[in-house]
Amino acid sequence: QAGTALLLLVAVVVAALPAPSLGWGVDGHLIICQIAQGRLSDAAAKAVNELLPSGAGGNLSSLCSWADRVRFRYHWSAPLHFIDVPDNVCSYSYDRDCKDEEGVKGRCVAGAINNYTSQLLTYGSSSLSPSSKSSDNLTEALLFLSHFMGDIHQPLHCGFASDRGGNTIDVHWYRRKTVLHHVWDVSIIQTAEKDYYDEGAGEFVDALNKNITGAWSDKVQEWEECAKNQTACPDKYGSESITAACDSAYKGVTEDSTLSDEYFGSRLPVVNLRLAQGGVRLAATLNRIFGQSKA
Ligand SMILES: *[C@@H]1O[C@H](CO)[C@@H](O)[C@H](O)[C@H]1NC(C)=O
Ligand SMILES: *[C@@H]1O[C@H](CO)[C@@H](O)[C@H](O)[C@H]1NC(C)=O
Ligand SMILES: *[C@@H]1O[C@H](CO)[C@@H](O)[C@H](O)[C@H]1NC(C)=O
Ligand SMILES: *[C@@H]1O[C@H](CO)[C@@H](O)[C@H](O)[C@H]1NC(C)=O
Ligand SMILES: *[C@@H]1O[C@H](CO)[C@@H](O)[C@H](O)[C@H]1NC(C)=O
Ligand SMILES: [Zn+2]
After folding, report:
1. Which molecular function terms from Gene Ontology are attached (predicted)?
2. What is the pLDDT of residue 198?
3. In a domain, 139, yes or no
4. Is 38 touching ligand 1 by the criterion CB < 6 Å?
C-alpha cells in the first residue's frame, strides 16, 4: 500500500515538473524536415519512402519529433540530443566535448549523427556484408538522424554545461515565465508564426524556401558541403551553434531577464538561418548516404 502511495506521489511530482526540453519544438523539427524532404534526390526519396513506417504516408516531417517522444522509453538516447561545452568557452571540440555525463565518448548529438549515418550507409547492402549489422533498425536510424540534424542546428543545443544549454536560466518571454532554452526551442518560432505566418508552419517553410532559392542561394552549396569527402560533418554545425549561442542566444541575458521585441527582432534572423541550414544539410546528408548505397 505504502509502495502504491509512493509511486502515485512520484507520478504526480514527475507530471508537475516541466518536461526537460530536448530540441527544437515540434514546429522547428517539422520545418527542417519539410525543407529537407523537398530537396531529396530520387534515390534518397525512394529510400526514405521505403524506410518510413507505412502509417507516415511517405511524410518524413510527421515523424521528426519521434526521437523526443521516445526519450523516456529509450532512456539511453537522452544525451544524444545535445552537446555541453565548458562554461564560457565559445568553441566546440569533439574530443573534449562529445561525451555523456559519465564521460562516455561519442555520446552527444555529433556522435549520434555519425552513428546513424554509418548505420544508414548499410541500406541496400546484402545482409552478408560484414559492415551490416542485422540488429540495426534503419527506420529508427532515419528518424534519429533527421531529428538530430535539427537539434545540432539549435544554438543552445551546443551550450554551456552548468546552465544545461540555457535550461536553468529563468527568463520572461514577453509576460510569460519560461527558460532561455525554451525560448530558442519554441517561443521565437511560435511568435514568428503568430506575427508573420498566420500561425502556420507551412507558410514559414515557404518563406524559408524562398530565401534558400533567393537571398541565400549563393551560400547554399557551402552549407551542403562536407570537407574531406565525409558523408556527414556534424562538428562544423556544432561549432557554428556554440558561436551563435555566445554571440546571440546568451548575449545580454541574465537570470530573470525579460525578453521581448528587441530580442525577438534581433534573434529571429538567426533562427531563420539555422532552420534553413538544418533542412538543406539534412537533405544533402541523406542524398550522400543513399547516393552511395548499393540499392
Ligand atoms: C506532413 O506532415 C506534417 C505534420 O503532420 C503536415 O503539417 C504536412 O502538411 C504533411 N505534408 C504532406 C505533404 O502531407
Ligand atoms: C548508436 O545507435 C545504436 C542503435 O540505436 C544505439 O544503441 C547507440 O546508443 C547509438 N550511439 C550513439 C553514440 O549514437
Ligand atoms: C524498427 O523501429 C520501428 C520504430 O520504433 C518499429 O516500429 C519497428 O517494429 C522496428 N522494426 C524491427 C524489425 O524491429
Ligand atoms: C528572407 O530574406 C530577407 C532578405 O534578407 C529577409 O528580410 C527575411 O526576413 C528572410 N525571411 C526568412 C524567413 O528568412
Ligand atoms: C572523394 O571520394 C571519391 C570517390 O570515392 C574519390 O574519387 C576522391 O578522390 C575523394 N577525394 C578526396 C579529396 O578524398
Ligand atoms: Zn531533440
Report:
1. metal ion binding; nucleic acid binding; RNA endonuclease activity; single-stranded DNA endodeoxyribonuclease activity
2. 86
3. yes
4. no
